[in-house]
Amino acid sequence: MPPAPTTPRTTSGRRDAEATKAAILRAARHFLAHHAHADITLKAVAERAGVSAPLILKYFGNKEALFARVMSFETDADALLDAPLDQLGRHMVRHVLTSQRDRGVDPILRIVFAPFHGEQGDILRANFRTQVSQRLTERLTGPDAPLRAELATSILLGLGVMYGIARGTQVRSTTVEEIVDRCAPAVQAQLTPS
Amino acid sequence: MPPAPTTPRTTSGRRDAEATKAAILRAARHFLAHHAHADITLKAVAERAGVSAPLILKYFGNKEALFARVMSFETDADALLDAPLDQLGRHMVRHVLTSQRDRGVDPILRIVFAPFHGEQGDILRANFRTQVSQRLTERLTGPDAPLRAELATSILLGLGVMYGIARGTQVRSTTVEEIVDRCAPAVQAQLTPS
Questions:
Q1: A46-98: pLDDT as tens digits
Q2: Phi, psi of B73 (to 5 degrees)
Q3: Chain B contacts of A171, Cβ < 8 Å?
Q4: Which residues form the HTH tetR-type domain (chains A, B) (predicted)?
Q5: For chain B, what is the radius of gyration of the CA atoms?
Q6: Closest to A56 (Cα-Cα) out of A68, A74, A42
Q7: Is A167 on the interface with B (CB under 8 A)?
Q8: What ipTM describes this predicted complex?
Q9: How far apart are CA B110 and CA A168, in angstroms?
Q10: Could you tell me the domains of chain A?
Q11: What predicted TM-score, i.e. pTM, was given to this entire model?
Q12: Closest by Cα among B93, B120, B94, B96 to B107
């Protein structure tokens, strides 16, 4: 799961700052997935991101603010939910798998590390609930929408665990579209039950 | 997810030893789900299990042997797979949910902590592959059985994450049989595709 350390590659002003921020967030996310919150230092995040610790402070304020950003699912949910409802099952399965395959990250899987982060874990859970489950619920119609949103999301979480953590040999050697064909119907059945 | 510390409750010889071993395994499993492998001490496991560290050594030999037991899915897979193939989808979903609800544990979910355990994580993944995915594959017939086994297992992992880690309010407030009704068809569709 951990990608290689990354350094910003762009050079022009504004884009450079954005690329640097993204590198810092990637580095912080890596540590969040491998260490307890209290064990993570700004220095380590800075080293992994290829920047200085003061630069992190300049961009994010302090360690807690940085991790608040990392613990947010807002931006990832935007991309995850970016499809019409009748195609959303296929889109979400494809988005999880291509994110894992192409970038070694998963839009929602960091929720599994909640138990390692003490009180921060509760923040992660609350964010997940409002920014993922509830946002998906708002897209649905019909009875039991909140439950169906959780069940649809759970299928995506399971695929993420199997691909990125258990590293299942079969799902990793099968094309994304093949897995979409096999898994999206179960997701869509929760979104728009017949 | 963490249950309260447990102490053996039985008194007669043989049963007492079994209950003590179970308490030690539960304690070790708790730490495995919350701390990096290197940070876990026999003393901490002993305290949580309500036994002495020498007693752990007597029963399991050493820390590595104890964790080898904890990293095995053998016994859990026995219970998970204990149903005829045509009812296995419902059985597996029900087994995951009742284990979570009644005992605060999950038969297979500890695979998600693999990233925290360094080389031990690879052992956990290899065990998961041979003791869960491959054992399920051996029960299946028809094309792509290994892939279908991983996809069926991934649904169970996702439910476990949603219930035990994300603590989804909906899945936790819905009856097990209701969730079985809603989720087992997707699992069974992987096991015995029509």
A1: 999 999 999 999 999 998 889 888 899 999 999 999 999 999 999 999 999 99
A2: -105, 5
A3: 147, 150-151, 154
A4: 18-78
A5: 18
A6: A42
A7: yes
A8: 0.86
A9: 15
A10: 14-70 (1.10.10.60), 74-191 (1.10.357.10)
A11: 0.86
A12: B96
